[in-house]
Specification:
Elements (H helix, E strand, L loop, with lengths): L4 E6 L3 H12 L4 E7 L2 H11 L3 E5 L7 H7 L7 E6 L3 H9 L3 E4 L4 H15 L4 H20 L6 E6 L2 E6 L3 E7 L2 E6 L4 E5 L2 H5 L7 E5 L2 E4 L3 E6 L5 E5 L4 E4 L1 H11 L3
Parallel strand pairs: 1-2, 1-3, 3-4, 4-5
Antiparallel strand pairs: 6-7, 8-9, 8-12, 9-10, 11-12, 13-14, 14-15
Helix pairs in contact: 2-3, 4-6
Length: 260
Amino acid sequence: MNPKLRVVIADDERPARSFLAALLRSFDSVEIVGEAEDGAQAVEVIERERPDLALLDLQMPEVDGLGVVRLIQKSRMPLVAFVTAHDEYAIKAFEMNAVDYLLKPVDPTRLAETLQRTQDRLEQADLRREEIAHIENAATAYEASNRKMYLERLPVRQQNEVVLLAVRDIASVEADGEVLHITTSRKETYSITYRLKDLQARLDPSQFIRLSRSALARLELISRVTTMPGGTYVVTLKNDQRLPVSRIQSRILREQFLRL
């Protein structure tokens, strides 16, 4: 008898995560060894549990599904299938690069195909490096296709008026539940009702960086990075805002922007 397929689920929406877990439990050949409610937690769970397969929601706060793959130590990389709402750019990128994906709501028959494909691939010892290359190529293709959709102006209310705020003027966005507090480079403040992860998906990632689960900032407005105990950072913006950086985002900041 083959050992059970060890699976980790990562999705920030509890109902979606519970639905997928229930489907997986209907397969006798599967063991759920971990669940994560965001990308940062997914990295920790995957590196600790070393599953055979990770089912990663494409859009998660702080670190998305593609970001999770980029952060996992290559020696601990499982096989990966992305779970996403219908996103034509993501699907095209995944199909072009032979990356497995599941559409929400996940269909049991399609899930069974993914599980069988995973079992087949686990028997090919030299496949891991090829899988990682496919995902990296898909990420590049997805980001290139999606770039033309980035916002240039953001409608925000100011008393009885709607202000079209230029995205280039935004210094930071901080979340308080589903209310986002926006601060500009001139220290103007606005609030909108929106989810941070949804807004981030519509902003150019070459211009904005996620600082934590509840904040992002414009890269070119970061003037100083201060090291804090435990290896995290606090960033200071040119408008004098000081914003803490989470542990996982400090790792990204250090690897991508603080090395010559």
